[in-house]
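Researcher: I'd like a structural prediction for the single chain below. Treat it as a standalone chain; there are no partners to consider.
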Amino acid sequence: MTQGDSGATTVCKFEVGLPVRSLQGEILLEEAQAAAADMANRAAFRVLSEAHPGDMLAELCGRFKVTYELLLQERFKGSRIGECRSLGIETVPFGVVLERSDDPPKD
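Model: Treating it as a single chain, here is the predicted structure.
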């Protein structure tokens, strides 16, 4: 998350848990991925558009997680947003450019 044009940034880490089936049947991976991405965007927009100057980025991250979970649970009962706990799951950064080990060094 970036706070306006202040240059202040923070990483908002979380883990998304979605059920693999519902009362209506199996939840397709593609459907779950698309819906989760859409709801993440909606939650981020909602939280950041209501933010006030001086709001702490960690507080905004917390509000984002709560909002995101509420939106997900409307679509997929049993969804959860929580701390990163699952071993072996690769962290996927959004909006952060990471240098890969095979990238040439920058001068």
